[in-house]
What does this fold into?
Amino acid sequence: MQITLESKAFGATETDALVTYVFENGDVAQGRAAELDKLAGGLIAQLSKSGELTGKTLETTLLHAPHGLKATRLLLIGAGKRDQFNSATLRKIAGVAVRYLKSRSVHKFVFVVREGNATEESAQAIAEGVVIGDFETDKYKTDKKNDKFIESVSIAGYANGEKSAGEKGIAKGRTIGEAQNFTRDLVNEPSNKLTPRVLAEKAQAMAKDAGLAVEVLDEKKIADMKMGALLSVAQGSVEPPRMIVITYTPANAKTGAPVIGLVGKAVTFDTGGISIKPADGMEKMKYDMAGGATMIGIMRALAALKPSVKVICVVPATENMPGGRAQKPGDIQTAMSGKTIEVLNTDAEGRLILADAVHYAKQLGATHLVDAATLTGAIVVALANVNVGVFGSDQPWTDKLLASAKAAGEKMWQLPMDDEYREFIKGSFADIQNIGSGKGGGSITGAWFIREFAGDTPWIHLDIAGTAWNDDAKPWLAKGPTGVALRTLVHLVMSQ
Ligand code: BES
Ligand code: ZN
Ligand code: ZN
It folds into this structure.
């Protein structure tokens, strides 16, 4: 898909569709909406007056052959209240435009930003919105809808002095949107196509293409390094595990500067192991590698955006299977750090593999950690599929993350980590146990388990179990993997 800045005046633009957004409360009499209305002979004002066009968020109104315009169609998308409008809404509007027009076999459109919105931030949000909105999960369908595609989007409304900001925003937004789709592609793969080995190969290929350093530890190296927690999960499967490490080093790396460690859970399929999951809905557990895929996607974006901080991405990849050699409830394992773990439930496997990955990231020099994981069903109970669960050991570091989430338009909510919850995972027969002792707070005890391995290193845990998968298509987003947290973490790294 091409994304460019439009130089023609929008009344004179020949295109399949001209798209803009309108606010609530009679906004059509103002600014660019009024300009368009004038060109179209009062058509928009008429629709507004009749009550058909209200400006309610993401409402769509399509006009065919609008008189006075050179465009074949005019699509008006509701933007809600003007004083609540932000780039998160604009991103969604752009996504709606793509999905709405694509389903009607439109191939090209011009997107007009409203007066006052011709900024770098807007162009970035629009580019992200159209790229993310364009993503489909039909890779394995043989009956392709060949006439449904968007070939080009051109953004109008930028004056000459605003064009370089617009170009910058488009480039950045495209990079980030494509990285998010790269992640979603990985998450969408079923577990028979994406084993830990295949994930490692794909990460390696991406890193080579992007010019990033990459190292993949195989099962032998993992054993040599005594990553006992990762191995304990992997031992139930015939597919060997992998530890994937991708490193971005800035051109003028300073010694003593912070190093960000991004750790992502990649269980390519989670059956639960011997503590096996119910059959109903188990197919969704192919997305249990979304945290890892997010971190790999972030590295792809960072290679292009070139932040000034070093970033180490560590992704432990394994299946969780109930094979003949699988670990059993009650087994005691020794993590790479030397801590002993009583495995009371083999389905709480994410925290086990993250234990070794977090320890390894610190050993590789990470001074600030973030992990992302589809860790607990309990986070869905707490926050549904709306907010990412945020846990942190260091409030200033966590506050930076929350600020980045706001800027990136991703909903995240911090949960408490009082010391009392730490008691829930005190081991009876080993240092620590992998589930809480029956007192609720499942997402918090999961977070505490990982924190034990982060130690004093500032650390954030993102529980994306509720938000990494979209059960129903949204007007701006396909059903399936969302790529959540990628934009937030790219923003966090870029703002260091
Ligand atoms: N991968 C699951 C968590 C999950 C649940 C992800 C629903 C996506 C949707 C994780 O490994 C798991 O099974 N967690 C257990 C932990 C429990 C045994 C303490 C859970 O949440 O039930
Ligand atoms: Zn599990
Ligand atoms: Zn899992």
Summary: Residues 179-494 form a domain with the Aminopeptidase fold (CATH 3.40.630.10). The chain has a mean pLDDT of 97. The radius of gyration is 24 Å. The first strand starts at residue 2 and ends at 5.
